């Protein structure tokens, strides 16, 4: 029996959708299996499910994170590589709290993941919290330098409801001297204030980080 042109087109579209990661809605059991595989770094199971049974960008009902963010958070690097290679994976898929995979890589000090994501085209700059904020808070000067080299905004402000902190303020608050020095060297503005009217130096003082406060004040003068 001859196949109609419409049926062929429909079949091709379905195949393309599945390949890109837009699988039909998964059952709760299938989702649980998928996210368990992500957490356990079971790349084989993830490859069997993603794009066929589970959408590559599905958000885990428990915790509200997409698979790529979970893989970075858990250090599931085999799964991370599999998801990164999958054409349907959205690098900017975010958790309910706004975290992206690159932000998580910066926070977890996972340079390999950060480099891979950037090479794939992950966004360095975004509204509100940025990967550079997370690298500053975690104290990873290498990742911070990498992000700055990719044109990260030095003075990006976090949302006003969270204080309008710049990366320099975050590094100062968390006592991350190496990142403070890097940001100052690259031109971060030490005189900016948060919603409380505090500069990075004052934030460092309040946290008991005297050396950092002095380093920032020396640049401000």
From TrEMBL:
This is Uncharacterized protein. SUPFAM superfamilies: Ankyrin repeat (SSF48403). SMART domains: ANK. It comes from the Bacteria. Transmembrane segments: none annotated. The keyword Nucleotide-binding does not apply. Pfam families: Ank_2, Ank_5. ANK repeats lie at residues 97-125, 127-159, 163-195. Residues 1-25 form the signal peptide. Keywords: ANK repeat, Repeat, Signal.
């Amino acid at each position: 029996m001859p196949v109609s042109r419409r049926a062929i087109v429909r079949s091709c579209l379905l195949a393309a959708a599945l390949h890109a990661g837009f699988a039909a809605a998964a059952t709760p059991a299938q989702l649980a299996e998928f996210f368990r595989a992500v957490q356990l770094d079971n790349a084989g199971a993830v490859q069997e499910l993603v794009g066929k049974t589970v959408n590559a960008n599905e958000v885990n009902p428990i915790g509200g994170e997409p698979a790529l963010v979970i893989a970075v958070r858990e250090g599931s690097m085999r799964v991370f590589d599999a998801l990164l290679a999958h054409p349907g994976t959205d690098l900017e898929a975010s958790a309910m709290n706004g975290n992206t995979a690159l932000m998580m890589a910066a926070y977890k000090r996972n340079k390999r993941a950060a480099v891979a994501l950037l090479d794939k085209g992950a966004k360095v700059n975004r509204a509100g919290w940025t990967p550079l904020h997370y690298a500053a808070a975690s104290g990873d000067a290498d990742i911070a330098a990498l992000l700055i080299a990719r044109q990260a905004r030095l003075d990006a402000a976090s949302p006003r409801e969270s204080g309008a902190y710049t990366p320099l303020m975050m590094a100062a608050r968390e006592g991350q001297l190496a990142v403070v020095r890097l940001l100052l060297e690259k031109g971060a503005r030490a005189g900016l204030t948060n919603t409380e009217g505090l500069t990075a130096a004052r934030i460092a003082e309040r946290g008991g980080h005297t050396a950092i406060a002095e380093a920032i004040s020396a640049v401000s003068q």
